[in-house]
Automatic annotation (TrEMBL):
Protein name: peptidoglycan glycosyltransferase
Pathway in which the depicted protein is active: Cell wall biogenesis; peptidoglycan biosynthesis
GO BP: peptidoglycan biosynthetic process; proteolysis
Record-annotated Glycosyl transferase family domain positions: 62-228
Family classification: In the C-terminal section; belongs to the transpeptidase family.
Keyword Glycosyltransferase: yes
Amino acid sequence: MPEGAPHRWFFGLALALGLAGASRDAADAWIDATVLPPVLAETSVETRDRNGQLLRAYQVGNGIWRLAVTPAEVDAAYVGMLLRYEDKRFLTHQGVDPLALLRAVGQAVVNGDTVSGGSTLTMQVARLIEDGPTGRWAGKLRQMRVALALERRLSKDEILRLYLTHAPFGGNIEGLRAATFAWFGKEPRRLTPAEAALLVALPQSPETRRPDRNAAAARAARDRVLARSAAQGALEAGEAAAALRSPVPTAMRPFPQLAAHLGDRMRAEAPDLARHDLTVDATVQAAMERLLAEAVRGAGPRVSVALVAVDHQTGEIIASVGSPAYAAEAREGYVDMTQAVRSPGSLLKPLIYGLAFDQGLAHPETLIHDGPVTFGRYAPRNFDGQFRGDIRVREALQQSLNIPVVRLAEVLGPARITAALERSGARLHIPGGKPGLAIALGGLGITLEDLVQLYAALAEGGQGVGLNARLGAAGALHQKLISPEAAWQVGHILAGLTPPPGAPSGVVAYKTGTSYGHRDAWAIGYDGRHVIGVWMGRPDGTPVPGAFGGDLAAPVLFDAFGRLKQGFERLPPPPPATLIVTAAELPLPLQRFRPRDAAFEAAAGGVELTFPPDGARLALGGGPVTLKLRGGAAPFSVLANGRPVATGAQGREIEIAAPGRGFSTLVVIDRAGSSSRVTVQLD
């Protein structure tokens, strides 16, 4: 026997026996005086999806993967195998097992060397949390004392949790849950006998048995555990034979890194949280990340792409992809392009048309002139440089013409448009701080996420819920942008756009956009439940020659809907008050759009609605509303929430039926096309 080989075992045995025979009071005092090391070690911060599935974990400060785990989250068969192999009297001893010490000393005397250790699982926990030595008698003595103290202060379940959290499994892997992800790519809830046996064997010698470096040693150690389990009757012969034939893993698997950019944001917002439960669906998120990786495969090494998918009824973010590859340096994959401020191109046009519908300035069947026009020094042009003359508003939006929408924006005023954007929750970046007419064509900065929020409001009848990514943190209801009737009209127009080849028609209301210089290609669309936004371009803002939203981003948008769910959910029917007529049936002022000097509120000589005043609250009890007018030229038309309720009126007091309880927008239009508008609350 090598000199001193069994010495530490005799010492341990003597200690155990001595403690047993010593004065109870002295032993208790010695154990109670033990100063324990900290038992609450740092574990990896995690982001989880809406079903509790791991999206991403972050290494602890020293580069260790150490994921929090409890015995209840672990396969019971593994726990049983672990206790039978390492410490079969774990549930009954008080930290030190005298029988195990006697066995270890006897084997050392007979064999002249250490054959098995006498350490209990609690003693191993004591060593792990102190990172102490395993062999020298002083270290073993300290482990015994700490183990006895741990047993007095913690439950067996808490001690087992410490082992499951701290046990080494090779390299920078600590704890069972980190090990199951690293070696098998899954949670520890369900383990095969072969997997469980390997995980029992690895902590005994985690470096020499690392499967990726020494598969033979790993297999041999695993097989010894399986053989003992079979001998103990814990495994049937056939089950053990099948486990022995199973291969051992030969490489560490990467840890999940889904929704990496969103996880970074959530962690930065709440740095004290160890777990962030998100509204994201891991299955959908993974599908979207694969889609975007495919989308840029042939688009050049510097092109990136981002996507946000949202349930517009709840505001919950279902998927958020900031780049096609988080670690791709050439594509600047570390940049979260869902949060990057970019020019929206034509994506604000639907809002402008919706505001015009709501203000009584136009209707989808209204004729508007597409021809040369100048506003001061600003002369907008269509993307193809051509003019189409008189064209229906519906067609102008579907063809994304620039001149008609700028005409409407000039009448509405840039301030009204930006105010509506801000009511949607968007954070705007306006060059020079003062909006101009160029905002209608993308002359401001906005993020993809905020654009998706805007379209979510359009999908929800003009008033949406703020987007949210934290599970259980419902988004706040934003202010009303436009009426439900105007929102439906916009959606109906966008649903009539021709989809990309092979995609179904009429099921998604969508809009594409391309920013100036081909720097950004966009596509955003919604069905009856979800809205998805896609951006493509270069993160550094340099042009992508020939990039158009319709060519690049629209096919990705429709493919994303296909991967989000089976089939599409129907767009809503028109609200009851929606005016659905032909151009010839429109009130005269709506048949043709007139410019600002003829049709904007109460300009000089124009009509003015003097009663009820804007913002008034009227208690009518179901009775009619009396409108009082000043100025303008008869006949007059009255719209209530976008619906004509009086036409051809000659007098300056007009009585209309109350449009219903709650807030209503009343618009009066005179013969020349001038208009006046108020919003009132009716009780």
